[in-house]
Design goal:
four-stranded antiparallel beta sheet, about 40% strand, disordered N terminus
């Protein structure tokens, strides 16, 4: 166990392992979930490699899909087309919780959640997943 802790510490110091956006960006759970033009966005402040804080937002529809009532990480999944009442939960507001259709348009709704720590990353001050576009908050310069 001590060897594993040592290896992870070395990787973090070398910049090979990533501490995750929860540690880098989500100061005190300040992440927010918004729906803008029917697209689901996660927004927060993230530091760039220079230390500058950037107000960044990510279209989560590009990162997550609804798979038979379960939120799963996948590219261009557009979970928002079959889910409703989405919100951030958890001590650090990093868990996305929604009610999603189980098997099609007339199927029953099921409560589901996904920890965004395994999906989202800080890419030089911008929230990102897969090869997503990098966005800053409207009006932020």
């Amino acid at each position: 166990m001590q060897l594993l802790t040592f290896v992870l510490s070395v990787l973090l110091l070398l910049g090979i392992a990533n501490a995750g956006w929860r540690e880098e960006c989500n100061f005190g759970g300040n992440a927010q979930f918004h729906v803008i033009n029917e697209a689901p966005y996660l927004s927060t402040l993230c530091p760039s490699h220079t230390g500058r804080q950037i107000c960044t937002m990510l279209d989560l529809g590009y990162c997550i899909m609804n798979s038979h009532g379960h939120l799963v990480a996948t590219i261009n999944g557009h979970f928002e087309k079959s889910c409703q009442n989405c919100r951030l939960e958890g001590a650090n507001a990093t868990v996305l919780a929604c009610s999603c259709r189980m098997f099609g348009k007339n199927a029953p709704w099921q409560d589901t959640e996904i920890d965004l720590e395994g999906v989202v990353e800080n890419r030089d001050g911008h929230l990102a997943c897969w090869d997503s576009e990098l966005h800053t908050c409207p009006g932020f310069v």
